[in-house]
């Protein structure tokens, strides 16, 4: 999932049109350009753009029919443009194209940030001290996001008022229904239980929505996050949504992705979940966090909705990643795991 591939033959993206748009809208940009497609980015396809003036990244909506409110690259761009001047680590934003006629979909162009892409949360090639430093950097960067003054960043209206989890449960129920391909009893049970058991919200912050190790770029030599990527699911909401999603790593089996269940401790250097809670709370001024089972059930329900959307795009023939079919196989296990945590929370 790290690196690029040649643009597939069936991808109708047009390099000449991109070059023409960039020369007009991106300061200093000069064509012609060549494109390569990043292996990741299942939801919004992402490309490396090499031109005479340098290298850029282009992120676009999928071509074809889209679910309502999904793939909002214009929102992503607004968020990055708001955060960049604050010093929070995001790529420099260069320009947004909202005219779908240019290449067939909305897109934006941003800086290519050079650094390390880490995919496996077990960090197999690192020493214990290096692992500790990487996890502390991820935790500290999340705290920095949640401490950012979203009003001062021009993002005061970036999310709707009211209980974040109430809105999100409703949203992902709607998204799931729009992409449903089969009846799943676990999902039906969650759709009934989650809105009846919503936790109280006492803080509002920018929420990334998919905060995990492979959505970050780390400094080449330091344990420091230099760019947080993939803001498609960002909004204003309860910061505990992000933090509990991050903590899901500790209750997810190691699978070569972000799961580190059973791996934490002094021997590996991967901090324990208690270590992360203490560090995050110290950075954000919290006394502690609530019991987490409800939050884990919610996060897995939301992932079920996301992966169901990928599965539906496979059925419709619009899936944008070679990994999509493999990812779609996770729908049932995700739903089952979500319901298991719901039962632990009293369902």
Q: SSE layout and pairings?
A:
Layout: E1 4-6, H1 15-25, E2 33-38, E3 46-51, E4 54-60, H2 73-83, E5 93-97, E6 107-111, H3 128-147, H4 164-178, H5 185-193, E7 205-207, E8 216-218, E9 225-228, E10 235-237, H6 239-247, H7 273-284, H8 293-316, H9 324-328, H10 331-344
Task: Write structural notes for this entry.
This protein has two domains: 4-111, Phosphorylase Kinase, domain 1, CATH 3.30.200; 128-344, Aminoglycoside phosphotransferase (APH), C-terminal lobe (Aminoglycoside 3'-phosphotransferase, Chain: A, domain 2, Alpha-Beta Complex), CATH 3.90.1200.10. It is built from ten helices and ten strands. It has helices at residues 15-25, 73-83, 128-147, 164-178, 185-193, 239-247, 273-284, 293-316, 324-328, 331-344, and strands at residues 4-6, 33-38, 46-51, 54-60, 93-97, 107-111, 205-207, 216-218, 225-228, 235-237. The chain has a six-stranded antiparallel sheet, with helices on both faces. A two-stranded antiparallel ribbon has the order 7-10. The longest helix has 24 residues, at 293-316.
The gist of it:
The chain has 347 residues and is α+β, with helices and mostly antiparallel strands. It folds into 2 domains: 4-111, Phosphorylase Kinase, domain 1 (2-Layer Sandwich), CATH 3.30.200.20; 128-344, Aminoglycoside 3'-phosphotransferase, Chain: A, domain 2 (Alpha-Beta Complex), CATH 3.90.1200.
């Amino acid at each position: 999932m790290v690196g690029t591939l040649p643009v597939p033959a069936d991808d109708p993206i047009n390099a000449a049109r991109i070059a023409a748009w960039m020369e007009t809208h991106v300061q200093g940009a000069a064509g012609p350009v060549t494109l390569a497609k990043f292996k990741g980015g299942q939801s919004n396809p992402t490309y490396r753009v090499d031109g005479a003036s340098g290298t850029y990244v282009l992120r676009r909506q999928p071509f074809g029919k889209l679910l309502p409110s999904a793939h909002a690259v214009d929102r992503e761009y607004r968020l990055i443009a708001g955060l960049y001047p604050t010093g929070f680590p995001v790529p420099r934003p260069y320009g947004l194209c909202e005219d779908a006629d240019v290449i067939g979909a909305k897109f934006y162009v941003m800086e290519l940030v050079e650094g390390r892409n880490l995919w496996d949360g077990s960090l197999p090639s690192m020493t214990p001290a290096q692992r500790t430093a990487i996890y502390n950097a991820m935790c500290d960067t999340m705290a920095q996001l949640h401490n950012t003054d979203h009003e001062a960043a021009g993002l005061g209206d970036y999310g709707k008022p009211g209980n974040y989890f109430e809105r999100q449960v409703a949203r992902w129920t709607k998204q799931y229904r729009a992409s449903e391909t089969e009846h799943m009893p676990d999902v039906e049970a969650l759709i009934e239980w989650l809105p009846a058991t919503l936790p109280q919200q006492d803080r509002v912050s920018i929420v990334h929505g998919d905060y995990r190790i492979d959505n970050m770029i780390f400094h080449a030599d330091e344990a420091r996050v230099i760019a947080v990527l993939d803001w498609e699911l960002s909004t204003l909401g309860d910061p505990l949504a992000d933090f509990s999603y991050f903590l899901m790593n500790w209750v997810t089996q190691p699978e070569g992705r972000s799961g580190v269940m059973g791996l934490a401790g002094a021997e590996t250097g991967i901090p324990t979940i208690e270590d992360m809670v203490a560090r995050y709370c110290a950075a954000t001024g919290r006394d502690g966090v609530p019991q987490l089972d409800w939050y884990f059930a919610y996060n897995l329900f939301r992932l079920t909705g996301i992966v169901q959307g990928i599965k539906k795009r496979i059925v419709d023939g619009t899936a944008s990643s070679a990994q999509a079919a493999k990812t779609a196989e996770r729908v049932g296990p995700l739903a089952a795991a979500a319901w298991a945590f719901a039962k632990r929370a009293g369902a």
